[in-house]
């Protein structure tokens, strides 16, 4: 099967929109809402099996099966109290192997925000999809304009065959999660070195911040087959890195097995074959749209793709 | 007062999101929903005074004050039947001066789409805001990279003092509505000549399609003071036009009174002063974000701005 660009976007923007009341309701009926300590805002959506497990921690949350809410206790009214309480639960669940997903434990904290865009909680990265809270990353499009012809080509790595997630699939030039306390540009510089051997000075000289993509992902199949349905609202900060033809990225931490400089036609073909990791396909479609390589003249789903790659999530964000 | 970039975005993305149930409900209670002939989808939101006027056309629509819906009659089951019926009403209302807004009559048809992205209806442009249907335009950012310094500057026109709408305000280099039967690039080429004297060959050689912005506008004050509250969901196709320093745009149709090549700092200052037409401010903010001139490091509302400038509208679109 050949995917359309919209098919690829639908693989990451999965949760139904409220405009489709039937599908939206059926989704909402399948999850519990994770609610702030003062009841004033929602933090995420979680599966009933996670809510069930939370019932054993009535000092931290109140689980209401009628309203289908998991509410943080009012007494947890500071950032540090919440950090302590929830990361303790994460460690307990990890130790007792409550969820396979926690096998991906990273020792990396992700920040969750309140409606004023202030840090509300910091949680172990592998714990976040269990709670369905918003996660953040940075993705970098490394590209070259071929001298003479002016042709645009993209540096495309293949993920290592031994990576636990999406082994062997094609990826963005560089990409990484935004762990605390790193900012966007800082994460970009760090990951460009770790994943592609690019020096900090080179990256800051050549990189441009160009926007975000955001979407509402739901695991169709767990990264661990036993667990599907975790919800992952996601925001990826996007950067373009215009590289000169003489700079060749090379794997340092071996998350990538190799890099190939691909023509746009080759990238399009591999996208349509489904060879790219899902969210990386979204990043490249956004890149192609910003660079006039996908246009309203030739793409019938142009507006829908643009909108769904910039979805406003129903939770507070950075 | 100095506006933030988010303040400027909020001036065009006005209608409350469903995530704010109270504001959203109060908005929904203030409008009637315009519904397709088969009841399967919504076309727009209209004010009660428009729904009231529609009651005199029971051969074309059924107005239900209980459900607050204006439903197209099932018999109007073809594109041409709907075109005929609604444009007849538009002409009648114009003749009897039912709404001041129709004084802006353009003799220009806008296409309304169904959920399959097929044309559903074509309506006089000035009639569209009365029905609250989605409208389309093209906006072009003409910019210059100054040789030597590499500084980016923008070509900014001032709207003619005699224009009926937003007289004397600053604007995008070129912008125009997408009237039937013109496509996006065709509209760009046409408007670039009419508004800025740029030849077709020059435009097609230098222009790049870079995305859309979309937002849910509501008139806070009518363009005609007696009528406020019309709803205008809008999609603008965005193009960047990289111009060489020797090409100087000049008004042809005199919609603009003059063009100034402005530094980024000057544009930012004038944006923050509120000197730009509202939706043109949104276009420039999007431009600045794509060009790394507004970054996540220095803009606290970065994600919210990106999302609100790409709002998925609750109606079918192209």
From TrEMBL, chains A, B:
Signal peptide limits: none
Sample GO molecular function, one term: 8-oxo-dGDP phosphatase activity
CDD domains in alphabetical order: NUDIX_Tnr3_like (cd03676)
Pfam families reported for this sequence: DUF4743, NUDIX
Superkingdom, natural source: Eukaryota
InterPro entries: DUF4743, NUDIX_hydrolase-like_dom_sf, NUDIX_hydrolase_dom
Domain called Nudix hydrolase: residue spans: 135-284
Protein name stated in the entry: DEBR0S6_02586g1_1
Phylogenetic placement of the source organism: Eukaryota, Fungi, Dikarya, Ascomycota, Saccharomycotina
């Amino acid at each position: 099967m050949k995917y359309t660009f919209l098919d690829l976007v639908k693989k990451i923007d999965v949760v139904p929109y409220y405009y489709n009341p039937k599908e939206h309701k059926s989704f909402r009926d399948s999850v519990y809402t994770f609610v702030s300590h003062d009841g004033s805002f929602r933090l995420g959506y979680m599966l009933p099996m996670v809510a069930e497990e939370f019932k054993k921690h009535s000092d931290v949350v109140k689980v209401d099966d009628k309203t289908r809410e998991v509410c943080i206790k009012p007494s947890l009214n500071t950032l540090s109290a919440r950090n302590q309480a929830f990361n303790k639960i994460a460690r307990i669940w990890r130790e007792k192997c409550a969820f396979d997903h926690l096998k991906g434990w990273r020792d990396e904290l992700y920040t969750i925000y309140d409606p004023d865009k202030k840090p509300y909680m910091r949680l172990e990265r592998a714990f976040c999809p269990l709670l369905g809270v918003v996660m953040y990353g940075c993705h970098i499009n490394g590209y070259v304009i071929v001298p003479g012809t002016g042709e645009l080509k993209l540096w495309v790595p293949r993920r290592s065959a031994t990576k636990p997630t999406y082994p062997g699939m094609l990826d963005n030039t560089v990409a990484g999660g935004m762990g605390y306390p790193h900012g966007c540009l800082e994460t970009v510089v760090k990951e460009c070195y770790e994943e592609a051997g690019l020096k900090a000075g080179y990256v800051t000289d050549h990189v441009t911040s160009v926007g975000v993509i955001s979407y509402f992902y739901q695991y169709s199949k767990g990264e661990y087959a036993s667990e599907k349905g975790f919800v992952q609202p996601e925001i990826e900060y996007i950067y373009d890195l215009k590289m000169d033809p003489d700079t060749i990225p090379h794997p340092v931490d071996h998350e990538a097995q190799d890099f190939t400089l691909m023509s746009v036609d080759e990238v399009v073909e591999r996208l349509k074959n489904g060879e790219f990791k899902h969210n990386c396909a979204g990043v490249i479609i956004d890149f192609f749209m910003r660079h006039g390589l996908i246009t309203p003249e030739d793409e019938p789903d142009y507006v829908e793709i643009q909108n769904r790659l910039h979805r406003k999530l129903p939770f507070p964000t950075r």
